[in-house]
Amino acid sequence: MVTQITRGIKISVLTSFEGTYFKNYKIHFAFSYEVMIENHSKDSVQLTSRHWEIFDSLKELEIVDGEGVVGKKPVLKPGEQHTYSSGCLLASPYGAMKGHFNMINFSNAKNFKVYIPTFRLCAPFALN
Question: For the ApaG domain, which residue ranges apply (predicted)?
């Protein structure tokens, strides 16, 4: 698990290799990841959008931007947490992801970024 704290918002990510799949006559490597967002600040915040940079050792960098996370824009009061799961397919057994969540602080109506630490996506058989 990797963890990073930005402005009192703690992001933790746990990854898992799910297996290989054939799609359009090509092999794909499936990974899942669970993201826990914890509000350790004194203010209520809301996650409004996400930005991902997906690195695949056999492809170009992929950028993914979107509203919320898995269809939700969670509001976190001080001490609360939100956990969600998602996944991605890679063309290789090795890659990584990183990014940030755009959030709004309800006490001052200011937008800010919460950074998601780089986490590796690696099939167990690809490790030395």
Answer: 3-128
Q: What is the three-class DSSP state of 90?
A: strand
| Count of domains observed in the chain | 1
CATH of the domain at 37: 2.60.40.1470
Q: Is residue 107 within 8 Å of 2, Cβ to Cβ?
A: no
pTM above 0.70, yes or no: yes
d(CA 127, CA 7) in angstroms, rounded, equals 34
pLDDT digits (tens, 9 = 90+) for 79-112: 999 999 999 999 999 999 999 999 999 999 999 9
Q: Which amino acid is at 26?
A: K
Residue 127: its pLDDT value, please?
72
Sequence-distant (6+) residues with CB within 8 A of 64 are 50, 51, 52, 54
Domain span holding position 115: 2-126
Which residues, 6 or more positions from 60, have their beta carbon under 8 angstroms from its beta carbon? none
